[in-house]
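Standup notes, protein team

Yesterday: finished cleaning the Cymbomonas tetramitiformis set.
Today: SMARCC C-terminal domain-containing protein structure.
Blockers: none.

Input for SMARCC C-terminal domain-containing protein:
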Amino acid sequence: MVSDAFDGEDGDSGDGDGECALDGEEGAPGDGGGKKWAASAVDMNRAAATALGAAAVRAKLAVDQEEREIRRLVMLAVENQLKKLEAKVRQFEELEDVLDREREHIERVWQQLFAERVQFQAAQLAVKPVPPAAVPAAQQTPQAALPHGAHVAFPLAAERVQSPLAGAPQAPAQAQPVLGTSMMPVPSTSMAATGPTMASAAPQ
């Protein structure tokens, strides 16, 4: 019985030693797995940081590229607007030149019409009959042009006829105005046919 007790105690002690040994074996592998897990976590963090850094760099490059593209498009739009403005300015300049030419043409036509109107009015004035009041004094009757009291003697129609007795033509007597007197010319006859005659003139 004593031996059984000792055997039982030994068995109990043996069981305890076995349990401790198992615990020691299980603990040792557990510590190594934690270190590996920690190392793998650090590596994962580093890899994630590296990936995030690369993504950030790529994003920065993409942003820069987008900014450059936007600037290029803005500059292109500005250049197009400037070209349109230049085209409009050229059109306005051409329109102004056309208006200047039209204005000069209208002025020339107006001057030509004004000159033709002046010529037409001058022609109408030239064709229009002159009123009696506008007749110059040189074209009036000689009697009205003579001084007061002067008379002009005109030859009679019978005196202009040649005498049938005379063979040669007879010169008509000339009438000369004398201030204050009027003399009537007397026709002279041939001395051979009628004899000498005396022309007398009685003063008035």
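Follow-up from PR in the comments: The helical segments are 2-127, 142-145, 191-194.
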